[in-house]
Structures
1.
Amino acid sequence: GKKPLHQRVVDELKHYYKGFHLLWIDTKVAARMVWRLLHGQVLTRRERRRLLRTCADLFRLVPFLVFVIVPFMEFLLPVFLKLFPEMLPSTFETESKKEEKQRKMLNAKLELAKFLRETIAEMAKRNKADTG
C-alpha cells in the first residue's frame, strides 16, 4: 500500500534531518583530523579516506542546498539526480541506493577478475607454446 501524503512528507523530513546530522558529525570528525594533520600527526588510510569523503560531501552540499532553500525546487531534485547521480552528499543516500552501488561495484570487480584470469591463461598458453 501507498503511504498517506503527510506520512511521506514526515519521512522525507526525517531523512533530510538524519542526513544533515550525519554530515555535521562527519564534519566535526574531519575538523579534528585536519587539526591532527596540522600538528604533524599522520592519518591512517581509513582516516584519510573519511576525510576525503567528507570534503567531497561538503563541496556537493552547495548545489544541494539550492534545492532545499529555493521554494518548490525540491520537485526538480529527482530530475537532477538522474542527470548527476553523484550530486547528493553520501550522508543523504538511502539504503537501496547504497546496495545498488555496491552491487554495481561488485559486478565491475568480477568482470575485471574474469578478464585478468583469461589474460593470464592466454599468457600461460603462449609461454607453454614458446618453450614447448
2.
Amino acid sequence: NNDTEDEERLWRDLIMERVTKSADACLTAINIMTSPNMPKAVYIEDVIERVIQYTKFHLQNTLYPQYDPVYRVDPHGGGVLSSKAKRAKCSTHKQRVIVMLYNKVCDIVSSLSELLEIQLLTDTTILQVS
C-alpha cells in the first residue's frame, strides 16, 4: 500500500512537471509574438490556437477545481452535494505547483490580451479567447 502511494506521488510529480514545461512553452511562444517589431510570419495561427486550448483546458480541469470545490468531480461517485456544502468542506491550502501554474496561466491570459491588440485574429480564435 505504501509503494502504491509512492508510485502515485511520483506519477503526479511527473505529470505536473510536464504541465509546467508546457506552460513555459506557451509563455515563450506568446512572449515572442508580443515582442515589439515582430514580422507577420511569427503570428502562426495554429500555435495561438494551441496556447488557447492549453489555457482553457487547465483553467477548467486544474485551476477552477483546485480553487473552487464546486467544479470538482468526485472520483468515487459520492453523493451529490450542494455548492455551499462543497465549499464548506474545502481546504484553503494549495500546492506550490498549482500556484505556479496559476501564475503562468495568468501571464498567458495577459499576453493573449496584448496579442489581440497587436494582431488581427480569426473570429473562431477570438471566440475561443473570450
3.
Amino acid sequence: RLAPTARLNPHRSLLGTGNYDVNVIMAALHSLGLAALWWDKRRSLERLALDRIVGFILNVPSPLSLGFLALPLRRHHWLAVRQHRGTYYNLDSKLPAPVAIGGAAELRAFLRDFLSRGLCEVFLVVSRAVEEAGDWLSPE
C-alpha cells in the first residue's frame, strides 16, 4: 500500500533483502491500533513507563557475510522485544528461538547495550491512546 505502482519500492532495500524502512513498520502497527515512537537516546531509560509500552523495535547494525566469508559492510536489521508473563524476550528473527532478557532492569541494560554501540535506533510500541496521552514516559 505504501508504493503500489512504484517500479522500485522506496520503502524496501534495493537488494530486496527485506530491510524495510520505518514507514512500513509504522503503517503495519497503525493498522493494529498501535504506534511506534522514536526513543530519544539522550533520555534516561529509567523514564520509560514500561507498564504502558507494548514492546520495542530496534534497528541495529548487522554484519554482512557470504557464507563463511565476513564482508567489511554493515546493514541494518530490525528486531523486536516483547514482554510475556513478566519476562522480556528478544524476538530477533536471526535467533533460532526467542531469548529471555529478564525483567525491567535487564531490559534497560539490554537497550542500553545496543544504544551504546551507536547506529542503533529504538522505537517504543504503544497503543494509540498512550501515544496521544504521552503516558509512555514517567515524569522526571
